[in-house]
Design a protein that fits this description.
The structure is a homodimer. By secondary structure, the first copy, chain A, is α+β, with helices and mostly antiparallel strands. Chain A contains 6 helices and 5 strands. In chain A, helix 2 crosses helix 4 and helix 3 packs across helix 4. The first copy, chain A, is globular. The relative contact order of chain A is 0.15. The interface between A and B is large, with 36 and 36 residues. The structure holds zinc ion (4 copies). The site of one zinc ion has 7 residues of chain B, from helix 6. The structure holds a DNA duplex.
Chain lengths: 165, 165
DNA sequence: CGCGCGGTGGTATAATATAACAATCGTCAC
DNA sequence: GTGACGATTGTTATATTATACCACCGCGCG
């Protein structure tokens, strides 16, 4: 079972990030094959770029990096790839940042809760069933049925809060 | 004690919305006077426009409406007013919609959870202490300290889900 | 072959937001 | 009053993010 590293905690500087990238790409291949989706070179490359680190990336950053590859990429190219990756559950879009981050739990359908460090910009994807249940229950009490959720928490990660004296 | 209507449930078509607007404006005046902030005509007018209904409004929509007033408004004008109103806790920005909505609980500091109907676009601001506590606890377990939260739930409000057979 | 469909390339433009500087207004000390 | 100063607004320009639209390509299929 290939799967990206759990990443349900902030990654250490020592962690083998090449493995993060490799796991994400391998998992994406598997998923796409299983679902009959086409994991084309552009889509693969965009996913790889998104996984360059654990920080969210803007679409135009990706565009620049694609251009540096040699291919003259235009906005629709990267947005199409992103749309595909988000739909396939391989990438999440962070609405508060207009940026994209690799999904840490791509092996099952979910909509996580994101912890975003305002200092180092790293992101961790939590998945708290408790929070999900509370929200669902309280929304239902108002007669509201949730279809999508966007939960983004900004603050300081452990490393950055200990730095701040 | 003036305060906008609770709006912790979806508003009925029959409710006296003029009262919603009036309460929001009166409360804003009070708040600004208390905090020594200047509730200028532009800021007042923008808040009034935001409260035209219970749906979020985009900055450029507001801009159009301001222009229709006669004043030749430019983007910075409306963005500055919005910045002020958000900072004063009178308005919230919805990241998933790039839009703004009047705060339903402006009488105390908070960061609510928004229920957004994808059909009628109405928004309700929940304030669930339970959700807040769960998130805080689970984030702290990862060493993360939350400074801001953005929680936006999209789905169907009671009225729109009963319409859909 | 002829057709349809998903993917890509490319141009243009829409929609959202901010930078930078000038002009004006309010307030307060003098 | 009036000059000084900070806060607010006016104005122009530009940055940033995202989509509409059409042409072309490659491939499977009747
Ligand atoms: Zn890593
Ligand atoms: Zn950090
Ligand atoms: Zn109302
Ligand atoms: Zn509705």
């Amino acid at each position: 079972m290939t799967s990206p590293r759990p990443a349900d905690t902030f990654p250490t500087p020592e962690h083998d990030h090449a493995e993060c990238i490799d796991a994400a790409l391998t998992h994406a291949e598997d998923t796409c094959r299983r679902l009959g989706l086409r994991f084309t070179p552009i889509r693969r490359r965009v996913l790889e770029l998104i996984w360059q680190n654990h920080e969210p990336v803007g679409a135009y950053d990706l565009l620049d990096q694609l251009s540096r590859d040699g291919r003259r990429a235009m906005p629709p190219t990267v947005y199409r790839a992103l749309e595909f990756l988000v739909a396939a559950g391989l990438v999440h879009r962070l609405a508060t940042l207009n940026a994209f981050v690799g999904c840490a739990h791509p092996d099952h359908a979910h909509q996580g809760q994101f912890l975003i460090c305002r200092n180092c910009r790293r992101v961790v994807e939590m998945e708290s069933p408790k929070v999900g249940r509370s929200l669902k229950r309280e929304a239902e009490a108002l007669g509201f049925s949730i279809e999508e959720q966007s939960i983004e928490l900004t603050g300081l990660c452990p490393d950055c809060s200990s730095e701040a004296h």
